[in-house]
Design brief:
With about 375 residues, the chain is α/β, with parallel strands linked by helices.
Length: about 375
């Protein structure tokens, strides 16, 4: 009987993700906000898989049908032509562009093919030279495949030839913003919906706009992605310091739910940052409630645009340097950072090293050694992107 049951259950995998259902699509940012930040809740009933707080889920989005139509039109095709897929049996051009291929970012392969075929694309050919990489990046900012097809109508491609120039549509990873102990059959995400205008066209993030605009009533395929390096300390009494500005707060909402559900006694300190307190305080009411209950020991926020000088999470860390040092050195706290790798995580890292140096009375080398030891002891963990 047992063997039969396991045969009957669909084996979900990366190649066959679970078809979740969108339950909630709620705005977290006020109308005055410069961002469109959303809270999504997906129904995972019957999926037979699991994740831990700190993990991510891969979301397998489909492309924007309107953009697919524009590409088909620019190719002079009908969309019914048979084309190969990256894996599996051939399908129609329309289906392949919807589900299988990445159709926004222009690949070097496609640019070379257009430069080779188009009558008026010498500039493109020049920019593809290895030493012009930076110029090419600048030139491509805000440009998509469709722009090149429209701009160079003399570059003709047969449908099967065109898809051969594209890369596979990859799933997007989102940190889970909920604990299965608090929401056993669900996963929550916090996502900035990407839309901007460039070269007279509205551009949209593939997965964020799929969730925000096209996921209602259709399956949202998901599969867990384990992040072993970003889990809560095994000892529930260990204090944690969490630095999570913007959507980087996702795993920390999940951590707090988990620690509440398991009755963990460790202290919890959250640093959150965004532009305006009034319209960008994602989950603000929940965090204030956690604070009232005593689950969230400390909450320090940085609002970058609410005063003349910009204030970021690293400034709030500096304000609390002595206390951070006490948590880390005397109390053995774990230090977590989630969010933007380019600037925020770098600034936070530099500030942490400075705090260790100044508060711990160390030389620069000793401070760096201390922070490297935090890393090797798995007490300094980063999930940055």
């Amino acid at each position: 009987m047992h063997a039969e049951a396991s045969v009957a259950a669909p084996r979900y995998s990366r190649a066959n993700p679970f078809p979740a259902k969108l339950l909630v699509n709620r705005s977290l940012s006020g109308p005055e906000s410069a961002k469109d930040t959303r809270h999504f809740e997906l129904d995972l009933t019957g999926w037979g898989l699991s994740f831990e707080v700190g993990d991510s889920l891969a979301v397998y989005a489909t492309n924007d049908p309107q953009l697919v139509d524009e590409i088909i039109h620019a190719l002079g095709a009908t969309g019914e032509e048979e084309v190969p897929r990256p894996k599996g049996a051939p399908t129609t051009l329309r289906e392949a562009l919807l589900r299988d291929y990445s159709i926004t970012q222009p690949t070097p392969k496609i640019l070379r093919a257009i430069a080779h075929r188009a009558n008026a694309a010498p500039l493109l050919g020049d920019l593809l030279a290895p030493e012009r990489r930076q110029d090419l990046t600048t030139y491509l900012w805000g440009m998509e495949v469709i722009d090149f097809l429209i701009e160079h109508p003399s570059a003709h491609f047969r449908p099967e030839e065109f898809v051969g120039l594209l890369t596979k549509l990859q799933p997007r990873l989102y940190s889970v913003a909920s604990s299965l102990k608090a929401y056993p059959e669900q996963v929550h995400f916090i996502v900035d919906v990407v839309t901007y205008e460039s070269h007279g066209r509205v551009r949209k993030g593939v997965c964020s706009s799929f969730l925000a605009e096209r996921a209602d009533g259709v399956p949202v395929p998901v599969f867990p992605s384990i992040a072993k390096h970003f889990h809560l300390p095994e000892d529930p009494d260990v204090p944690i310091i969490m630095i999570g500005p913007g959507t980087g707060v996702a795993p920390f909402r999940a951590y707090l739910q988990e620690r509440q559900a398991t009755g963990a006694k460790g202290k919890n300190w959250l640093f959150f940052g965004s532009q305006h307190q009034k319209c960008d305080f994602a989950y603000g009411e929940e965090f204030e409630a956690f604070k009232k209950e005593g689950l969230l020991t400390r909450l320090d926020c940085a609002w970058s645009r609410d005063q003349a000088g910009k204030i970021y999470v690293q400034h709030r860390m500096k304000d609390n340097a002595a206390e951070i040092w006490k948590w880390l050195d005397a109390e053995g706290a774990h230090f977590f950072v989630c969010g933007d790798a380019k600037r925020m995580a770098k600034d936070v890292d530099a500030t942490l090293r400075k705090i260790v140096q100044e508060q711990g009375g160390k030389t620069i080398d000793q401070a760096n050694e201390y922070v490297e030891k935090l890393k090797s002891d798995k007490r300094y963990k980063r999930d940055v992107y």
